[in-house]
Amino acid sequence: MGKAQKYVLLGDATYPLQDWILKPYQEDENLTQRQLQFNYRLKRAHSVIENAFLRLKARWQILLKCDDCSLELLPTLVLACCILHNICEAHDNPFNEEWLEGAEPTELPKPCQPAPAAMEDDRAEQVRELMCQYFESCGEG
């Protein structure tokens, strides 16, 4: 789209819109087709991420019981599991679907209320709009 973009995190409606946190448009009857498509693509991307973390936890089940690990060791443990997981995935190391039984997705507590509008960044709307344009130019999918 002619503008360099940095990486962004995906958030849900409870997060404040920032130029580094993309969140969906608020669902209502006034959303344009473009905004609906943006929300759909964001939801799809979020499900890919959830699936990746589920596979990571299933392959490295030590991540399911990190509560007995020292806080100093935890970042190294998680990073090592991520690196090893990516190596396994890149080399088509077989993934045993039975592993998923022990790594059911857990619903983490989320804020009940959306972030106050004062926390939102005006520049972030420009980033979201650029993403909307990009998704529109890519067509369906």
Question: What features would you describe in this structure?
Answer:
With 141 residues, this protein is mainly α. It has one domain (9-138). The protein has three helices and two strands. It has helices at residues 33-59, 74-90, 122-138; strands at 9-10, 21-22. The protein has a two-stranded parallel sheet. The longest helix has 27 residues, at 33-59. The mean pLDDT is 84.
Task: Give a quick summary of the entry.
This protein has 141 residues and is an all-alpha fold. The protein has one domain (9-138). Helix content is 43%, strand content 3%.
Q: What count of helical segments does DSSP give?
A: 3
Note the run of SSEs as H and E. Answer: EEHHH
Low-confidence regions: none
C-alpha-based Rg, rounded: 18 Å
Number of domains: 1
Instruction: Compute the number of strand runs.
Output: 2
| Subunit organisation of the chains | single chain
| Distance between the ends | 19 Å
Structural class: mainly alpha
Largest sheet: 2 strands, parallel
